Amino acid sequence: MDIIYYHPFFNAQIWLDGMRKRLPEANIRQWQSGDDKPADYALVWQPPFEMLAKRQDLRGVFALGAGVDAILAQERANPGTLPKGVPLVRLEDTGMALQMEEYAAATALRYFRRFDEYEQQQRQGIWQYLAPHDASQFVVGVLGAGVLGGKVAERLASFGLQVRCWSRTEKHYSGVQSYFGQEQFASFLQGTQLLINLLPNTPETVGILDKSLFAQLNAGAYIINLARGAHMKEDDLLAALESGQVAAVTLDVFAKEPLAIEHPFWKHPRVTITPHIAAITLPEVAMDYVAQNILAIEAGKTPEGVVNMDLGY
Question: 111, 202, 229, 255: most buried by Cβ count inside 10 Å?
Answer without folding.
Answer: 111
